[in-house]
Amino acid sequence: MFVHAFQISLGTAAFVHAGYPFRGPIAEVQDGPVRAVQMKDMDPVDGVDWARVIRSRLGGRGKADWLQPDDLLFVSRGTRFYAVCLDAPPEAAVCGPHLFHLRVKAGSALLPGFLAWQINQPPFQRALRRAAEGSSQLSVRRPVLEALSISVPALADQQRVVELARLARREHRLYDRLIRNRESMFESMAEALLSASANS
């Protein structure tokens, strides 16, 4: 599929920053002016569930690096490392300190959606697992992430991959919905059977 591609380090293609340095746990503030994305709000297939993202206030002296369309969020610790590409984040949104905030550099000839796709594929995932550190919980440090190699094919090839990945995510959601509907149908059948047995 790819006629030609060149390799560069991820840090050459994208800025990598830690999330906003909240002091301690991120406190929910009902009328807070800021949305704070945490790992629990993210999913490899569905991306960020903005309905779950809490409102908060920024504390401390850290400068807010507001999330923008086409930014990436990378889960750098836990049992699974992955990236999601943001479509249309709300205004005044940041990510927590346990996430890395990636922004593709201008002129890097790299589509953000393609970078997110490549990070989530087995070759890059193997490199991440080899580079991960920690005993009780694995994590990937920012310099390590920046040093890992990515492949950059032609923009047309990248666009095709991004579109295929979008269709695959749509299929995944449809299959999940079908499975849930079937499980609900079986549950209703079992309840009806139990009710019929009790009345006989």
How is this structure best described in words?
This protein is an alpha+beta fold. The chain has a single domain, classed as Alpha-Beta Complex (Adenine-n6-DNA-methyltransferase TaqI, Chain A, domain 2), CATH 3.90.220.20. Helix content is 36%, strand content 22%. It contains five helices and eleven strands, in the order E-H-E-E-E-E-E-E-E-E-E-H-H-H-E-H. It has helices at 10-13, 112-119, 122-131, 142-147, 155-199, and strands at residues 5-9, 14-18, 34-37, 42-43, 47-48, 54-56, 72-75, 82-85, 93-95, 99-104, 149-153. The protein has a four-stranded antiparallel sheet. The protein has a three-stranded mixed sheet with strand order 6-3-9, with no helix packed on it. Strand 7 (72-75) and strand 8 form a beta hairpin. The longest helix is centred in the last third of the chain and has 45 residues, at 155-199. The protein is globular and about 75 Å long.
Question: Top keywords for this entry?
Answer:
11 strands; single chain; four-stranded antiparallel beta sheet; 200 residues; three-stranded mixed beta sheet; Adenine-n6-DNA-methyltransferase TaqI, Chain A, domain 2; 5 helices; alpha+beta
